[in-house]
Amino acid sequence: MEEKIIEVSSDETNPLSYYEFIRKEFGATVEGNHLMLESEKYGSLDMIYYEYFPRLICGVTSLKLKMPFRILNSTVKEDKYVSIRIGNSGNFTSETKKKSTLVNALYVYNSNQEFYIDYPINQSIRWYYLRIPIQMINKFIEPGNDQLNELINKEEPWFYYDTLTDQLDRIINELDVYIQDPLIKRGMLFSKMIEILILLQKKSYEDGLENIVYGVQKNDLNKMFLLKEELLSDFTKVPDIKALMVSYGMSESKLQKTFKKVFKKPILQFFNHHRLEEARQMIMNSDKDLSQISFELGYSDLTHFSKRYTSKFGERPSVTRKKSAENPLTF
Question: What is the dihedral of CA 150, 152, 156, 157, to 10 degrees?
Fold first, then answer.
């Protein structure tokens, strides 16, 4: 029998009311802006937030659940803001981490975007967030005609998704250290979340924001999030479209169309793209030999892997490894 999902509603505008609900329903402890839960039944949850200016909030949430939860995010028509969520799933200790590093992701959305997120059991998850009123954003970014400024002023629901660049991944790693120090975590959390906002505008100017999505129903949106997590969780498992149709309750045309609308690539192309990106990270950041990397990512043999890699990056895996070893600061 499938375990019942516990649903919790949130509008992201009043953390204290959200804290109070979790305290009453699940027995959490609340100390001002800090919520803590250690439960044999529900698992562990740690949430902290800071309000730096009126309604400008940064926070961090860490959890490892024993029961599946679903967070329902509702819209707040009278409160116009933009939210940034950045984080990683999978175990935070690299020795036991099973999921791909590419499960890390950045989400940006406005206050009219409804969605829900399912959190699985027995998986350590941490994310950082910034919620900033629209009228305050130009205090931190440059005004202009870039896509980010255009998005900020749109009334319709929208969200933006991207996997993490090395620069954003570095920020997460820094935050994971800073939040352990009570003397600096408040200031460094604000500093790094604003840095992410600035880097987002830089990308908007230089490369554009490709993965902007409008008009996807929240049920379909959540299914695509779950499918994305499934695809990136095991690169040895090539997607079986027929099986995915059954699992997600969609025809092939709707499945492919909705996935492409959200992630800008068909399912197999998305999978292969990120499998090769993962290979590149492993080549540059580990001492595993190329045959082992090829095997761990599900390629039939090293020759097949090398051909695919060379086709995408314009150089053989061995060349990337050599360049990385010779010039580590440029990779």
Answer: 120
Rounded CA gap, 1 and 56, in Å?
Answer: 43
Q: Which domains does the chain have, with CATH numbers?
A: 6-214 (no CATH), 234-330 (1.10.10.60)
- The residue ranges of DSSP E strands in 90-216, in sequence order, are 105-110, 115-119, 125-133, 158-163, 212-214
Return the beta strands (E) in 66-157 as ranges: 69-73, 81-89, 105-110, 115-119, 125-133
Q: Hey, how many other C-beta atoms are within 10 angstroms of the C-beta on 258?
A: 19
Q: How far are the Cα atoms of 23, 41, 300 from residue 314, in angstroms, in the given order?
A: 54, 52, 21
pTM: 0.79
Could you list the pLDDT tens digit for every one of the 331 residues in the chain? 456 778 887 767 778 888 998 999 999 999 999 999 999 999 999 999 999 999 999 999 999 999 888 887 776 667 789 999 998 654 333 333 334 444 678 989 988 887 777 787 888 889 999 999 999 998 999 988 888 999 998 888 888 888 888 889 899 999 999 999 999 999 999 999 999 999 999 999 998 888 888 877 878 888 888 898 889 889 999 999 999 999 999 999 999 999 998 888 999 999 999 999 999 989 988 889 999 999 999 998 999 999 999 999 999 999 999 888 776 545 4
Q: At 188, phi and psi to the nearest 5?
A: -70, -30
